Amino acid sequence: MDLNSIVKITRKILRALDTSYKNKLYHGSLTEDNIFVDENYNVKIYDYGITQANKGINIRKDNSIGFLSPHQININYTDKESDFFTLGVILFDSIFKKMPFGIGKNEKDMLKLIDRGIDWNTVAINNENIALVNIVKKLIRRTEKYNSVEEVLIDLSKFMYVKADIEENSINIIEEDTEKKQHNKPNSKFLQKALLLILTLIILVTVITQF
């Protein structure tokens, strides 16, 4: 999935989460499996209220432990911060096609992996995705985090603006390079005329020398 699509989907997920937050409802069990996206990028999020219905205990099934925040694993506490953490994990997986911390065999193992952190030297960060990676970092780190959905949406908008600017500059560079090549390309009509003139002079000189 390209970065533009990832950002479009993320923005819609955030708006859906924001609506639930206004009703004081946190998801708590967000994973890639309960986010449905159709061909028009319409997003539906399922399994709302499962954590709440389960008396705040987060469901541990399949590989879902890899999407839980530290305080969900430790004390089964779900809030906006835990949803943001999970969104950061999902974003990382969407960009780099792997889980940021891996998946622990159990809760204790998972916490160790999270404490160890992400080895950013093992992922392909470049000028195109670095702004989005910084958003991921802010979603999953323990300090200086996002406080609201609006803050995340603003940074995503900035990312799209910067990305569009980079793409525009790339197009301009290509166009300039093409113009230079065309400018430096020899004029074929001029060469034809020059060759014709030279041939004419050679013929004239040959004729004159014969007399």
UniProtKB/TrEMBL annotation:
It comes from the Bacteria. Keywords: Membrane, Transmembrane, Transmembrane helix. The keyword Amino-acid biosynthesis does not apply. The chain crosses the membrane at residues 190-209. It holds the Pfam family Pkinase. One of its GO terms (molecular function) is protein kinase activity. PANTHER family: PROTEIN KINASE DOMAIN-CONTAINING PROTEIN (PTHR24362:SF309), SERINE/THREONINE-PROTEIN KINASE NEK (PTHR24362). This is Protein kinase domain-containing protein. It comes from Terrisporobacter othiniensis. The lineage of its organism: Bacteria, Bacillati, Bacillota, Clostridia, Peptostreptococcales.
